[in-house]
């Protein structure tokens, strides 16, 4: 009987099966229990030995039951856990999210304005030839304006572009008029940094060339940008200024008001009508590449501005260096939303 019982116990595949075996052998009216009940009918001299025998069987069965129960319980728990591991209804754990850098947010806003006005958007090389960064922009080597943009020179004679204006040249060499384009990208200047000057910063350059383009178009375009940034009542100011690649040249500022009631003229950048020498330099480059001279006699305007200035005011960042110090206390404030 012990042998059968233990074979059945080990064959039990579920706790329910095992319970059945247990009832059959050691339950109230189980086989072992019944056997114990027959002891009283035995002669007293046999009773003790028979009792010990049945008890030994019972203990062996109990031990086998306990062991098998442990095995089946563990198996049931494992099955439960592994089915829970793929419970697709559980809420996710959430991932730490990044966010767009404040300068990219301002860029996206500015570029959105120009895309709506039909401008192409390009970037360009940060390592630039001297000819594109200076000469072709009417800044010969002896020109004092070179000192205004102190330059990082590379050992091979090239440089890190000091502004995005060389892309005016590159774009015109590749495209014929009429054209409207904005350039985004990093620029570099070898200068002492302070709260409003970095040695690496960004510019947005605009270039428009076409028949009859005038200073009025330039002013209208900057005013449209200001309205895009600061709403219908935005004001713009132009002051005469000098850049070798434009004539006449101007600096422009936008009247900036914020909800805290602060307001001021925000000096944004420079602009002007393309200098004839620039068109000539473009045609020379085109000719050297076997392309037609199509720029002499054209008119157009260009402008260049620094998005950092806009971002500092928009987000209340008091020092331009905070943008590039990779301090999570600053950039962490721009996590999450992408706008
Ligand atoms: C220029 O770089 C001209 N290429 C702009 C231009 C383009 C004029 C087309 C006419 C026609 P400027 O050096 O002023 O100009 O720089 C333009 C803007 O870049 C400045 O108004 C300012 O917003 C930003 N800027 C200049 N230097 C720094 C700097 N060190 N750190 C942060 N922003 C700067």
TrEMBL record:
InterPro entries: aa-tRNA-synth_II, aa-tRNA-synth_II/BPL/LPL, Phe-tRNA_ligase_II_N, Phe_tRNA_ligase_alpha1_bac, Phenylalanyl-tRNA_Synthase, tRNA-bd_arm. Its main location: cytoplasm. PANTHER family: PHENYLALANINE--TRNA LIGASE, MITOCHONDRIAL, PHENYLALANYL-TRNA SYNTHETASE. It is found in: Cytoplasm. It is an enzyme of class 6 (ligase). This is Phenylalanine--tRNA ligase alpha subunit. One of its GO terms (molecular function) is ATP binding. HAMAP family: Phe_tRNA_synth_alpha1. GO terms for biological process: phenylalanyl-tRNA aminoacylation. Residues 115-328 form the Aminoacyl-transfer RNA synthetases class-II family profile domain. The lineage of its organism: Bacteria, Thermotogati, Deinococcota, Deinococci, Deinococcales. Tetramer of two alpha and two beta subunits. It comes from the Bacteria.
């Amino acid at each position: 009987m012990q042998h059968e019982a233990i074979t059945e116990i080990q064959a039990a595949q579920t706790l329910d099966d095992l319970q059945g075996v247990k009832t059959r052998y050691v339950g109230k009216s189980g086989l072992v229990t019944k056997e114990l009940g027959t002891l009283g009918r035995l002669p007293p001299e046999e009773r003790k030995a028979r009792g010990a025998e049945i008890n030994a069987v019972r203990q062996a069965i109990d031990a086998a039951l306990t062991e098998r129960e442990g095995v089946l319980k563990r198996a049931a728990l494992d099955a439960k856990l592994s089915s829970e591991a793929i419970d697709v209804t559980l809420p996710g754990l959430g991932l730490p999210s990044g966010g767009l850098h404040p300068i990219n947010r301002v860029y996206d806003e500015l570029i959105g304005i120009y895309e709506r006005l039909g401008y192409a958007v390009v970037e360009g090389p940060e390592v630039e030839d001297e000819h594109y960064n200076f000469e072709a922009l009417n800044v010969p080597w002896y020109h004092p304006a070179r000192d205004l943009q102190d330059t990082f020179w590379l050992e091979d004679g090239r440089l890190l572009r000091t502004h995005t204006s060389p892309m005016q040249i590159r774009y015109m060499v590749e495209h014929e008029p009429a054209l409207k384009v904005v350039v985004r990208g990093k620029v570099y200047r070898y200068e002492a940094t302070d709260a409003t000057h970095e040695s690496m910063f960004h510019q947005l350059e605009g270039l428009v060339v076409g028949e009859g383009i005038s200073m009025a178009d330039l002013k209208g375009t900057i005013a449209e940008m200001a309205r895009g940034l600061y709403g219908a009542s935005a004001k713009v100011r132009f002051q005469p200024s000098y850049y070798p690649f434009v004539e006449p040249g101007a600096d422009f500022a936008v009247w900036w008001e914020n909800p805290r009631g602060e307001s001021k003229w925000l000096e944004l950048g420079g602009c002007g009508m393309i200098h004839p020498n620039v068109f000539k330099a473009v045609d020379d480059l085109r000719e050297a590449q076997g392309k037609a001279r199509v720029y002499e006699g054209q008119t157009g305007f260009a402008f260049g501005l620094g998005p950092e200035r806009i971002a500092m005011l928009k987000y209340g960042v008091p020092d331009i260096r905070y943008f590039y110090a990779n301090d999570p206390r600053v950039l962490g404030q721009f996590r999450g939303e992408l706008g």
